[in-house]
Amino acid sequence: MKRLVRDVDFNEFLKVLRREGRPRYLPFYEHIASPGFIARRTETQFDRMTLNDAGFWEIYVDFWLGMGFDCVPMEISLNCPMPQGHSGLSEMSEAHVVFRNRREFEEYPWPDVSKPIDFHHFETVAKLLPEGVKIVGGVMAGPYEWCSQMMGTVGMSYLLADDPELVEMVFAKIGSLHHGAMRQLATMDSIGALRQGDDLGFKTATFLPPALIRKLVLPTYKKMAEEAHRNGKPFILHSCGNLGTIYEDLIEFCKIDAKHSFEDVILPVDEFKRQYGKRITPLGGLDVDVICRTPEPELRAYARRKIEECFADGCWALGTGNSLTNYMPVENYIAVLEEGMKVSG
Questions:
Q1: Structural domains counted in the chain
Q2: Which long-range contacts (CB under 8 A, 24 or more apart) does 63-67 make?
Q3: Phi, psi dihedrals of residue 197, rounded to the nearest 5°
């Protein structure tokens, strides 16, 4: 494994997130990396391991450190049992439905709000971090994603017409678990910033009407951001899709500090930065499809253009527009990071 080595300090990434001064190098950021990508990069069988296997977290941490990151992105799932589905790479929208009515909602084995996730994994990773590196931590999958899986997209659509109060109850319950997790994560010294992933849309719009998102989802984001800020830490939102109708709400009401997930066909990261960059930090944004399919010379030129456009004011971190996928060529991504390594603050 070709290691990318530099003297990192999470405080440099904090400058980016807070838009407070230019960092001395261009920080890197990703939301997640697929097990398959990690396995290929580290030349291990990481994609066959579970969180509790010996060596899992050691490989995971070294994966990020070996690419010049000053943070380790990390998320742990809610302690909410879900059906297995079909164990495929993708599932139908109703594959994980756990309740369709009030009785099933009330009978569901909800975790206690004081133990919404297994926090000990964060403690394990904290012991593996060298000086200057912090965790960017949160809950795996956001309020909308959990609710739409538990009710199913079709099921939730019917319930919005037949029993909207039940839909509100589900979002309130899931929101309380996310808030409870964030309240505890925010107090951990090893966590330098809080983050939440929650895909709210697709190419042309949000999944739910903006008014419903404002009512059901955004209040939870606001509470999570407040917990982060109360402990002096920034809050990052990763959300795919066309969110043009709610960006003002995310910035002014929820008070998120940074946004991740961009697609050139929806809103290129450099255009987002021109529109909102004075109030919020964009992260990543290099189109996954471009990284996967572009020959190296052209890819390096593409990365340099994005760096020139987005890092001119020092308020940006280099990375993909979505995640490190199973099908992304490792060598292509490393080429992108190498271009970032050439940049000083």
A1: 1
A2: 63/33, 63/38, 65/130, 65/133, 66/1, 66/3, 66/4, 66/41, 66/42, 67/3, 67/4, 67/28, 67/41, 67/334, 67/337
A3: -100, 135
Question: Is 257 part of a structural domain of the chain?
Answer: yes
- Give residue 37's domain range: 10-332
- Percent over 70 (pLDDT), the chain: 97
Per-residue pLDDT tens digits for 39-62 = 999 999 999 999 999 999 999 999
Distance CA 321, CA 324 (A): 9
How many residues are there in the chain?
345
- List of E strands, the chain: 71-77, 134-140, 191-197, 235-238, 258-260, 281-283
State both tokens at 116: 């919404």
Fill in the amino acid letter for 303: A
Digit-coded pLDDT (tens) for 86-145: 555 555 668 789 999 999 999 999 999 999 999 999 999 999 999 999 999 999 999 999
- Evaluate whether residue 156 is within a structural domain: yes
